[in-house]
Amino acid sequence: MKPLCVALLMVGLTGCYPLSLQPLFTASDVAADEGLAGVWQKQGETDRWELEAPKNGEYRMRHVVGDETEHLVARVGRVGEVTFLEMRGEKNPDDSQAVPGYSFWRIKREGDRLEVLPLKPEYFEALIRSGKLEKAQMVRGEFVVFTGTTAEVRAMLRARVSEEAMYGELERLRRIK
Among 101, 112, 149, 165, which has the minimal tally of Cβ within 10 Å of its Cβ? Predict the structure, then answer.
């Protein structure tokens, strides 16, 4: 695995998805969904998301992959008519390699079903290379990092939120507890 991917996984990203230096939501944008608390899993897989009930709009989250556990902080909010989950690694003061950053996932919850769409790095790579996305850059020519302010990142996503090409593969999870 590439070193930056390892570093991003250490801060709670569940893969090499676009990373933002700023959050997507301000405190006033957060709209916690009490029904999101619980344990979520894709059918036939052992990896799971464990979300505690939100406190002050923030969920404590554990992403369990085999015998490894990532500790995250997550918030829910809307960009236009679309609901997003914003995640960041829960900083470990003993971990000097931690890189602060946020990943954003489009979500839709209906009862005990949760659909999750990550942002697709290739979509943003193409925008950066064509000069159509100024508040982002490629790190080492491999990873997309949004460098704009919270307002700029929100505006960028709001302008593209309905573009299906912006999203990666749909994941369907079910509440197991």
Answer: 165
Tens-place pLDDT, residues 80-92: 999 999 999 886 5
Q: Judging by beta carbons within 10 Å of its beta carbon (0-12, 13-18, 19+), is residue 140 exposed, middle or buried?
A: exposed
* Cα diameter, the chain: 46
Domain boundaries, given as residue ranges, for the chain: 3-175
Residue type, 48: R
| CB neighbourhood size of 91 (10 A) | 13
Give the pair of three-digit tokens for residue 138.
């490629």
Question: Do 155 and 79 touch, CB atoms closer than 8 A?
Answer: no
Element (H, E) at 146: strand 143-146
Least confident of 60-69, 133-142, 145-154: 133-142
Rounded to 5 degrees, φ, ψ at 57 are 80, 0
Could you identify the residue written with the tokens 């704009």? 148
- Separation of alpha carbons 176 and 41, rounded Å: 7
